[in-house]
Fold this protein.
Amino acid sequence: LCERLRALDIDEIRVSPWRALYTACRSQDADAVIRAGASAGLIVDADDPLLQVNACTGAPGCPQAHIDTRDLARQLADALAGSSARLSVHVSGCSKSCASSVAADLTIVGQPDGYGVSFGLTASDPVGDVFETEADVLNAMGVLLAKQDLEEMHA
């Protein structure tokens, strides 16, 4: 990314507290900057489903986390990409709720015995169902998305 930006005479990138990158460029270079970001794996589209998902550091980066939140968050975003539903999703490695303190449409909280799943709650609220595997969580997400899509079709 830096090499591509340097080729456009861009020598400064700023990082926001929300992990967004900012740089100043000539208007004629804006598309090239966006393409460079996309090729580096950065989110460059405001409709990217990853923006619907908040996730903490999770395991193994956090000693309190019971689950790998980042991998699960990406899988959930992939599921969202195939749906017209606009859900907020929070994946937390434990009940501390570090990534988001507000309620989400779907909240997944790492538990010692699996994945706690709640709807319309925060990670620090009592969990609803506890699923044993990531596959179980992804299946539950699929059911929720199918329900949302049906509701939108009949609205």
The radius of gyration is 18 Å. The CA atoms of residues 92 and 109 lie 5 Å apart. The mean pLDDT is 91.
